Amino acid sequence: MMKKLIFPLIAILFAFTACTDDENQSINNNAALVGNYVLSTLTADVAVDLNQDTITDMELTNETNCFDSMAISFNADGTFTSTIAEVSFDNSNNLVCNTNVESGTYSYANGTLTITVNVNGGTATESQQILLTPTTLSFNVDDNDVAQYFNGAAGTPASGIMSLDFVYNKI
Predict the structure, then answer these.
(1) Quick one: which H or E segment has residue 171?
(2) Is 63 left (phi over 0), alpha (psi -120 to 50) or beta?
(3) Of 140, 72, 132, 78, which is closest to residue 102 (Cα–Cα)?
(4) Which of 55, 61, 78, 154 fits a 20 to 30 Å CA distance from 34?
(5) Are 2 and 119 in contact, with CB atoms under 8 Å apart?
(6) Tens-place pLDDT, residues 89-136
């Protein structure tokens, strides 16, 4: 159960696209990250048909509204809250979407985001490089993290996805 809850959040927050030191030099502390972010795009490396309407698209937000509520809030006190989509498929390969809210603490320095997530009475800590601009937070999830994000993806409309690019806009 702990893996089911933490892997989507870790995928969202930690499998970030690396950026050069030059890109991160001006944004390197918690104050730079503080704010509210909403998912604007979620792009797969291949076109898929999650909603089974026979039209494929690489932009997954065009395939389902499942991801519409995904958001992250980083607070000045070093805490965060994230709304994540928990995606799975039923026996007919119909997408099943639930949302979950996770929270914990974070620190951001020199382009590295470290979070500690509260999960089932325990905690898990992860660190990763992120790409942060004054208006966006973006990252990439690949291989095993994609499999964790799309629960039971083998044999489903999501089975061909090997990489996901997330872009959150700061609001």
Answers:
(1) none
(2) alpha
(3) 72
(4) 61
(5) yes
(6) 888 888 899 898 989 999 998 888 889 997 778 888 987 778 999 999
